[in-house]
Amino acid sequence: MLQNIRDNSQGWIAKIIIGVIIALLALTGFDAILTSTSNSQNAAEVNGAKIGLAELNREVETQRRQLLQQLGKDFDASQLNEGLLRNAALSGLIERKLLLQGAKAADFAFSQNALDQLILQTPEFQVDGRFDANRFDQVIAQMGYSRPQFRQMLEQEMLIGQLRAGLAGSGFATDREIGDFVRLERQTRDFSTLTLSADPARVTVGDEAVQAYYEEHASSYMTSEQLVVEYIELKRHAFFDQVEIRDKDLQALYQREIANLAEQRRAAHILLEVNDKLSEEQAKAKLEELKARIDKGEDFAALAKEFSQDPGSADKGGDLGYAGPDVYDPAFEKVLYSLKEGEVSSPVRSEFGWHLIKLLGVQAPEIPSFDTLKEKLVHELKAEQVEQAFVEASRDLENAAFEASDLSQPAQELGLQIKVTPPFGREGGEGLTANRQFVQTAFSPEVLEQGNNSSSIELDPDTVVVLRVKEHKKPEQIPFDQVAGKIREQLLKKHAAEEVRVRGEALLGELRQGHTPIDQAQQGEGWHVVEAAARNQEGIDPAILQSAFQMPKPAATDRPSFAGVALPNGDYVLIRLTGVSDPSDDLSEEEKGMYRRFLASRNGQQDFTAYRRQLQSTADIERF
């Protein structure tokens, strides 16, 4: 048959088949190119909704920043695994997307007006107790958000929070569930323990066994590979003394600084939302009626408390506090800045509904003097020039190190000193050699094996180094004589633990059969009695306590249960359970309520977790 195929492969039928195959390959290849191109800016797709690379990168930076804050300023950021961090961030975004889809499917919503109030009342965005637009922009910029991006993120967080609260808050606990939990949680047990100590004196280890262990585990008894590294270090702060500032530049920066200070206006409003119960015309007419009442002398704040549909300000008489430009809806802000103090506007339409706006107060910006800002201005101007000088010097260092065969020439060209580290291994050392990026670069093939100068390494935003291996101390076998004592001690402990375990398990078997008088068998070692021990009893090894509460209830008072547990220190403990006591006191209503809230909360959290898993299992998720 194969020969027939070969013979016919030159015919017209074969050519047609080959043509069809080529066409199919071309089509599928073209489709793959289109698919690849269309997803080049996306990280994943969740039920048809895209997660962009920009969104993923921002989430990675957020998680990195949060980790660094939690771990402290001394933590080496280079120890963070970029791949794991990126996978964790993407998994979080996928789950977030699923929860948002779930919230929208359940018709959860969070109004834009409520979002405004949340932002205005957030302490992190306030200065001296009042919302500050500059502070707001500064904080969200540090988080990597623009204003629209932050509002979108905040709205999504509130929706997810509503969903979580809705599911977790629906948990409940029955009286029987409470009773069973309390019975187990408050249960006490009476037991005794007999400790069989692992005694290295009871066992022997011959020289042959020590030698055999050494040979079998020879790779464990090696000196660590170590490097001595020479390096050049470039520090940003070293450039500050080299920068000179002109007075006219300081004055220009001062004028720009004070020009950005904006007037703050304190607004109050009455909001009526347009919906299926209140039309555009009705809302406007109602506000015109309220405006007429205000013009006749009625109190604006009282009417706001009665009629305003803004939950964040109605109880405060519609007071929104002080805010600067670019905070409110453009239509709202335009009218606000046209009012005189104490004046009330006509009805104003914004994207949130219809408003009456009252200007409660105007606060002129406080203009600081030049002298109070001079130190800050000098630092800012120097920082700009230092940044440029530092970047240029870092680039010169990179180029010089690449072109040179050692560090002498780069050090001489840049006026830097060559420094040398103490020996350190792959696990790092102290000071500079504790930095994972520094260590990884030193042990990289380009530097260690090929003997090259490294490329420049940014240890932190203010420090750049270039390094070179000066000395490479390879691992060597540690002589047997130097580790024989340690091996013997290790084997003695291991054999002693095994000997006492075997002895303990044999005694446990005899105890369960009721054959062995334990006191005689242990040559005087006695039982330690523990009465009415709780699950969280202090002073008892957790392994013993856990084992005691896992044992079956004794069949009778004179027929105890027995168990054994090996401890990490090598000892073996026999446990004799003699009694199990359930709580007899009835719970007070306050106690029952406490347990009910705890179990309901736990059950609700479990329900929410199950809901998340269900979303994951039924979703169409594709990672690119």
UniProtKB/TrEMBL annotation:
Parts of the chain that traverse the membrane: 12-34
Primary localization: membrane
Keyword Cell inner membrane: yes
Coiled-coil ranges from the UniProt annotation: 46-73
Subcellular location: Cell inner membrane
Span of domain PpiC: 262-361
Keyword Membrane carried by entry: yes
Keywords, in A-Z order: Cell inner membrane, Cell membrane, Chaperone, Coiled coil, Isomerase, Membrane, Rotamase, Transmembrane, Transmembrane helix
Organism domain of life: Bacteria
A Pfam family matched in the record: SurA_N_3
Topology in membrane: Single-pass type II membrane protein
InterPro entries, per database record: PPIase_dom_sf, PPIase_PpiC, PPIase_PpiC_CS, PpiD_chaperone, Trigger_fact/SurA_dom_sf
Similarity remark: Belongs to the PpiD chaperone family.
PANTHER family linked: PEPTIDYL-PROLYL CIS-TRANS ISOMERASE D, PERIPLASMIC CHAPERONE PPID
Protein name (database record): Periplasmic chaperone PpiD
Species assigned in the record: Azorhizophilus paspali
